[in-house]
From TrEMBL:
Localisation per UniProt entry: Cell membrane
Protein name: FtsX-like permease family protein
Species whose genome carries this gene: Planococcus chinensis
Family in the record: Belongs to the ABC-4 integral membrane protein family.
Its membrane topology: Multi-pass membrane protein
Keyword annotations from UniProtKB, A to Z: Cell membrane, Membrane, Transmembrane, Transmembrane helix, Transport
Residue ranges of every copy of the ABC3 transporter permease C-terminal domain listed in the record: 61-175
Record bears the keyword Cell membrane: yes
InterPro entries per UniProt: ABC-4_Integral_Memb_Prot, ABC3_permease_C, ABC_permease_BceB-typ
Transmembrane regions listed in the UniProt entry: 21-42, 54-76, 104-132, 152-178, 199-217, 229-252, 284-307, 537-558, 592-614, 626-647
Pfam families: FtsX
Amino acid sequence: MNNRFFSSLALRNIKSNRQLYIPYLLSSTTIITMFFLMVSLLTNKFVQERSSSLPMMFLIGAVVIGIFSFIFILYTNSFLIKRRKKEIGLYGILGLEKKHVAKILFFETVFTSVLSIAAGLVAGVIFGRLVFMLLNYLLRLPIDIAYSTSLLSAGVTAALFLGIFGITYLYNVSQFTFANPIKLLKGKQEGEKEPRGSVILFILSLIFLAWGYGISLTIPDPLSALSRFFFAVLLVIIGTYLLFVSGSIFILKAMKKNKRIYYQPGAFISISGMLYRMKQNAVGLANICILASMVIIAVSTTATMFIGAEETLENRYPYENNLSLFGDPENIGAMNARFEEMQEQAREETEAAGLQVEGIESYRYLNMFGRLEGEEFKFEQSSPGSDLPVFMDVLPLEDFNQMSGNSYELADDEALFYHSTGTYSEDELAIGGQTYKLTAIDNEFSANMALTESIALVLPDVSHLERLKGAFEQQFPDNTFSTIDVKIGWNTTGSEEEKRAFGEAMREKYGIGRVSATNYESRILQREEWFSINGGFLFLGIFLGLLFTIGTVLITYFKQVSEGFDDREKFQIMQKVGLDKEMIQESTRSQIVWMFLLPIVIATIHVIFAYPIVRKLLLIFGVTNDITWLLSFTGVVVAFAAVYWMIYRVTSRIYYSIVQ
């Protein structure tokens, strides 16, 4: 017998089992499309240009989808091969050797994998372009976001799924290699043994979940959150699968032991049915839970960024006009004179444009970084190892009082002190060879101080800044970046058009490269681009949410169909022994409600514990309002629950039609 015979037989098998293969091919194609779209976003121009952290986050998403794809295809394939065991056993009875059956399965795998991968890549290109066009039309962003992909993305997708389908082939071959034909002939008629509840797996699930939650709850700063986010996600995914596989069995067995609950007609049927199929059921529930978590996080975070765009713009540009002056490292006196001159110049430029100054803030500051060791701040020139340094802003008291509206007074050995993490509780701090007595104050500085561990130190006058600068340069004589710089911010009267014209004139005169050691930024000029960026993030969030929701629909449908086929013969037998249809519907409804509620509840818990790490990540993009995120989170959970309820209603009808 040659390969042509086996390939023809494989095609005939696929056609005769199309009731099983069509859902399998559709689900495989959809999951391949999801992964291909995620990988394509890694090379998207918007993702590459808007934030250095976005490619890393989408890489994490691609890895998570890849893991999910592996589990999902193995899950759907196990359902397929289970229903074909009788057919495979018949081959052995008719005289085909196991190597011949392996060849048939090989060609079946080749045909289905090539078709699924090709269809998934084509669907990814078409779906990506259509959804990007639709979202661009609905959101009306100033600049359209284009969908793009590459041969590399297609190659990575094809390679991954060829590997996954190869593993499914090995799994399928193993199902008949170690079984005799008579046993295979029983096929799906052979019920599953009651699963054993593993205490070890249950404890491991709690350990993995607690570990992942602990990373989120104890993450020190946003930059650390970015690097540890993937590890936390991976731990929660592993913990979720173990929890559903082991924890659900413990709960069901506990319910079975409770006679008052178990010995009720509906409960007896539903608990027994779910317990015997819980291993397969648990994988589906865990997949839905993970996808639901992705939808909630992706859409709620990007919606928060878009809703809070004005607030983040004001955090980034505290005044309508923001002028920076970079000090001369060799001539501090000239910089101080220029400090006074630039404030006056800002007023003159405003009045020359026919506008009036409304509130002006100016201050000198010195940036440096180092380590807190005991009661001493030790300078560092660069960050050693993987740990980030402590960043310090040093301001003179005169400028701090002017910018904050306070009237503090300091002796020569006193300082005002703010620590972003609040972990430094000493009364004194030694820095640059001098010890200062500290008075703690609230954060009246930049919102960016929350990005990493930071210190603000207010010293008696600018001469202390000069002395610290000198001490730093003495320790690092080759450093040329230690300068005392200036920030000047002010608002103006006038209409939006007048302010925009003034901003354009100032940017032309004082922007980067216009005047030595200055930079001008206008909030009004940045607003359109800022909302475009945040709108783009919302665009990506909706796109990913839609993608993950489709995955949820797919796996819920496949789960209902597979359970329907598993339950049909059992309920037909129950009807023959006197169980009415109303009782069947009541018992099946409890199973489906279990499937509906459990993933969304666990997903909500996951997102609640993910809040600290998500909040830190949002700080990178300038989002500081917790209420905005809470409202977005609540709205997305309610909206997704409503969509999920509709999925439940539709798929439950499919289940009932199969069972009955």
